[in-house]
Amino acid sequence: MTEQSEWRFSDDRGQLSTAPRRPGRVLAYVQAGATLWGLGIRPQGIFGSDHDGPDPDRAKTGTLPLDEVAYVGAGSGLDVERLLAGRPDLVVTVSYGGGHVYGLAPETAKPLEERVPVVVIDVSQARTFTEIGERFAELAR
After folding, report:
1. Which of 26, 56, 61, 126 is close enough to 71 for a disulfide, judged by CB 3.0 to 4.6 Å?
2. Which has the closest alpha carbon to 28: 97, 98, 90, 112?
3. What is the CATH class of 7-140?
4. Rounded to an integer, what distance in angstroms lies between the CA atom of residue 91 and that of residue 113?
5. Which residues, at least 6 apart from 74, have a Cβ–Cβ distance to it below 8 Å?
């Protein structure tokens, strides 16, 4: 995500996300946020899935400095307005196959995508860790 001109990224659902410039305010699923942090992208916020609680799971946050990165909640406790409260210009999440947006209910994901680009990286067993890392690195460029 280092381009200064129009930003474009085709996610693992085959959906092309575009923006007038490189996104600077990123909201990410917790593990995606930790991965992006390791690649030099500083998410402004993270969210969990229905498996997570009201506080972020330290086993999933990696080196994320939780005093700097807002945790906006998890799973069914999330709605579009809560996700957009920090004014992200990109949301990054994962899929465990089939292109489903993990961590967000379909009734939240669909209207969210109408308001902000949502990039989904497939982290299913069909991919190696190296392949997953390469996809996140492509996104971070």
Report:
1. 56
2. 90
3. alpha beta
4. 9
5. 47, 48, 49, 50, 51, 52, 53, 54, 103
- Rounded CA-CA distance 77/75 in Å is 5
Tokens in use for 79?
């709605």
- The percentage of residues in the chain with a pLDDT greater than 70, rounded to a whole number, is 97
Task: Answer yes or no: are the C-beta atoms of 17 and 115 closer than 8 Å.
Answer: no
The residues, ordered by sequence, that sit 6+ positions from 101 with a Cβ below 8 Å of its Cβ are: 93, 95, 109, 118, 120
Structure confidence by residue, pLDDT tens digits, 38-91: 999 999 999 999 999 889 988 999 899 999 999 999 988 899 999 999 999 999
Beta-sheet strands, E only, within 3-125: 7-10, 16-19, 26-29, 45-48, 70-74, 90-95, 118-122
